[in-house]
Write a structure and sequence with these properties.
By secondary structure, the protein is α/β, with parallel strands linked by helices. It is built from 11 helices and 8 strands. Helix content is 48%, strand content 15%. It has an 8-stranded mixed sheet with strand order 7-5-6-4-1-2-3-8, with helices on both faces. Keywords: Glycosyltransferase, Membrane, Transferase, Transmembrane, Transmembrane helix.
């Protein structure tokens, strides 16, 4: 690799992926070596607590193109993904998960399409999700329908975080004020020329999924609240519906009073109180989600903090960017030197 950077950077966020590392290297390295182009693989260790760090250190001994970016704590998949993308140095940047459900061989087709048609974004679109369970397929389809409804049809259906970005897109992402953007929504929103490459989604090669139901729900909530004010409008309409229902109940109560049928009355009162209470709590919850995002933005804390970057071994340190800056523009902490890095990766 030269000081101007490689042609291709492959970003692989990982958390507790010790068991899949040998399989990933065996699949990914031959694909990239056959390109006969300078490349780097940016493995982002998202605060793993198993042997992932030691496994990456062992791989680096025989794989010079492997670059290890270690975060100080577990910051989440999206934050680790953003950290790797913003620090990647290639003219093209591909992001892929470590579990091999997205085939590394597809990277060749993505790069070929981008160069042939001058595209800035190439999405990996899942043509078949038969390896996923019924519930996973149903929830994923619902998520993409919702995102396309809120953000627009430029969000490709069944396209996750397996994508290729040009250097122009990465630089545009650097300029965004968001500290932890949801890339699967922000990238289509930028409006760069894009294309698609379809592939068959495989089963996870080893280990356990890092996206259980709770994290999928969290991603959906983060996607909606970071990209649309529709929930607030929904709360407004829900409040108006509550007012209409209460007005009808008032009319019913007045008619019943004139008819002399107001002896008991407690069921209607009970239902009205429950309905209004539920509407108020729901509206407060929706408002709280947005207030929480405002509070987080005002705090100015970074979405991730880099503890070590093996690129520093060669004295080729990148400027601190994105979530690694404090409110005054200075770096968060110091990146350790080669000796400290070697200790940290053991």
């Amino acid at each position: 690799m030269t000081r101007t950077g490689p042609l291709l950077s492959v970003v692989v966020p990982m958390y507790n992926e010790e068991s899949v590392l040998p399989l990933l290297a065996a699949r990914l390295r031959p694909v990239l070596d056959d390109l006969a182009e300078p490349y780097e693989v940016v493995a982002v260790d998202d605060g793993s607590v198993d042997g992932t760090a030691a496994g990456l250190a062992a791989l680096r001994a025989s794989w010079p193109q492997l670059r290890v970016l270690r975060l100080r704590r577990n910051s989440g998949h999206q934050a680790a993904l953003v950290a790797g993308v913003l620090r990647a140095r290639g003219r093209y940047v591909v992001s892929i998960d470590a579990d091999l459900q997205d085939p590394p061989e597809t990277i060749v087709a993505m790069l070929r399409l981008a160069r042939a048609e001058g595209l800035d974004v190439v999405y990996g679109v899942r043509a078949d999700r038969s390896t996923d369970g019924t519930f996973k397929r149903w929830t994923a389809a619902g998520y993409y329908r919702l995102m396309r409804r809120l953000v627009g049809k430029q969000v490709p259906a069944q396209a996750g975080d397996f994508r290729l970005l040009s250097r122009a897109v990465v630089e545009a992402l650097r300029e965004l004020p968001e500290r932890a953007p949801v890339l699967r929504l922000v990238v289509p929103w930028l409006g760069f020329p894009s294309g698609e490459v379809t592939y068959q989604r495989a089963e996870r090669a080893a280990g356990r999924t890092k996206y259980p139901l709770s994290r999928m729900a969290g991603l959906a909530a983060e996607s909606v609240t970071s990209f649309s004010a529709a929930p607030l409008r929904f709360a407004t309409w829900l409040g108006l519906a509550g007012v209409v229902v209460c007005a009808l109940l008032v009319v019913v109560a007045v008619v019943a009073w004139f008819a002399g049928a107001t002896v008991t009355g407690w069921p209607s009162l009970y239902m009205a109180i429950l309905f209004l209470g539920a509407v108020q709590l729901l509206c407060l919850g929706l408002l709280g989600e947005y207030v929480a995002r405002i509070y987080t933005a005002v705090q100015g804390r970074p979405a991730y903090v880099v503890a070590a970057d093996s690129a520093d071994d060669a004295g080729d340190r990148d400027p601190v960017v994105g979530g690694e800056r404090t409110g005054d523009g200075g770096p968060v902490g110091q990146v350790p030197g080669p000796a400290a890095l070697a200790d940290s990766l053991r």
